[in-house]
Design brief:
The protein is an alpha/beta fold. It folds into 2 domains: 224 residues, Rossmann fold, CATH 3.40.50.2000; 158 residues, Rossmann fold (3-Layer(aba) Sandwich), CATH 3.40.50. It has 14 helices and 13 strands. It has a 7-stranded parallel β-sheet with strand order 3-2-1-4-5-6-7, sandwiched between helices. It has a 6-stranded parallel β-sheet with strand order 10-9-8-11-12-13, with helices on both faces. β11, α10 and β12 form a beta-alpha-beta unit. α2 runs parallel beside α5.
């Protein structure tokens, strides 16, 4: 097949998934050309390795308030139309689209004239999840009369901003429905798509490159590793509080690695760690070989994001023979086998997480055995070829049905 690809991704798990999928499709004889806006990360795992890459401009806009939301949606739709015009002039059998980190479900499916497949890792979470509160919840009631000038002004501003979110949700729903088929990365994500959009999607698990993610042979050290973009949804605060619950004399250092960060949030986490006497060291933008080196040396990976839809980090840690301590929520319940590849906590109770971390640190032989079984499990159950098989089947089916 001749496949067009569109995405607007930064570095991280979604971009790795797209890179591995495109690599696998090309290895099987398919040809690929990719389109993306200039807001995407062009250097991290570049798709230009596998075929022509078309970078289209996307003006930066503020998405705050009703006016900002409308402007951002219009700008993205114009970009999608331009990409679709270019794709429509080619002889492509299908479009493989990935999410937009601004709007999740992109509008490109509306404008292409070929069968289209959206690999949607998650809906736009801020519209459908309490992060920390659902955006539809009314603000606190005014202490005085609601018709007083100041409360009335705040109420009107909130109504306009909420209307912007409603329009964004409507457009995202229209975008999702425009695709011939939607794939998701976990059963949890499939349920999220049903809750957000009321549509069916198809499960296509991802994989791990165990030839790249493998133990380096370095000696294990006492530090605990955290991994992912340093943003609120990754909830490093849960991990920091868990480590703080370990007695100071036994408390391991906490190292965080990731591709990108929110600088203000990083300062908040450093302040929290300092207040709790946790040795917190965030290392952002680390080369992949150094990430693998850290995974191979860490005593454990602690993984505490909020409702993570899939999560590459625990599987990559397992591939490096590193056991995982995680909270049993979201897609983690599908990737980590409690007692075999890691230890799962029922919730974010710091004391329970601290007990699990201590258990691995104080019994290194047990942790070593768990790490070895974890790598065997990843090799057996999370190979990329199986994921490419499913993706290829879906692309072939929608191309044949057009």
């Amino acid at each position: 097949m001749n496949i067009a690809v569109w995405h607007n991704l930064k570095g991280g798990g979604a971009k790795r998934a797209l890179y591995e999928q495109v690599k696998g499709l090309v290895a099987r004889g398919h040809t690929v050309q990719s389109w993306c806006p200039d807001t995407a990360d062009l250097d991290y795992l570049p798709l230009a390795e596998f075929g022509p890459r078309h970078v289209m401009p996307l003006p930066r806009t503020s998405a705050s308030g009703l006016t900002g939301t409308l402007r951002a949606l219009k700008t993205m739709d114009e970009h999608a139309r331009a990409c679709a015009e270019s794709i429509n002039r080619g002889c492509f059998d299908a479009l493989l689209a990935y999410p937009c980190f601004f709007h999740a479900a992109p509008p490109i499916g509306r404008h292409v004239r070929i069968p289209s497949l959206l690999f949607l890792h998650e809906p736009c979470r801020r519209l459908y999840e309490a992060l920390p509160q659902l955006p539809w919840v009314a603000p606190p009631a005014a202490a005085g009369p609601w018709w007083a000038p100041r409360p009335l002004k705040r109420a009107l501003e909130n109504m306009l901003a909420t209307q912007g979110l409603r329009i964004q949700a409507r457009e995202e729903l229209t975008n999702v429905r425009a695709f011939s088929r939607v794939l998701v990365n976990s059963r949890f994500s499939r349920e999220s798509v049903i809750r957000a959009y009321g549509i069916e999607s198809h499960l296509c698990y991802l994989g791990v490159d165990t030839a790249t993610f493998r133990p380096t042979g370095a000696a294990r050290e006492s530090f605990v590793l955290g991994m992912g973009g340093l943003f609120p949804v990754k909830r490093p605060d849960r991990a920091i509080r868990a480590l703080a619950a370990i007695p100071a004399a036994k408390r391991p250092p906490f190292v965080w690695v990731g591709h990108f960060e929110d600088p203000a949030f990083r300062r908040d986490m450093e302040s929290l760690a300092n207040s709790l006497s946790v040795d917190f060291d965030a290392r952002i933008g680390m080369p992949e070989r150094e990430v693998i080196n850290h995974l191979s040396r860490a005593a454990a990976l602690i993984y505490t994001p909020q409702l993570e839809p899939f999560g590459f980090a625990p599987l990559e840690a397992n591939a490096c023979e590193t056991p995982v301590v995680a909270i049993a929520e979201g897609g983690i319940r599908e990737t980590i086998v409690d007692g075999l590849t890691g230890l799962l906590a029922d919730g974010d109770n710091p004391n329970q997480l601290a007990t699990l971390i201590t258990r691995l640190i104080e019994d290194p032989e047990s942790a070593r055995r768990m790490g070895a079984s974890a790598r065997e499990h990843v090799i057996a159950h999370w190979p990329w070829p199986a994921s490419i098989d499913h993706l290829e089947t879906h692309l072939t089916e929608i191309a044949a049905s057009s």
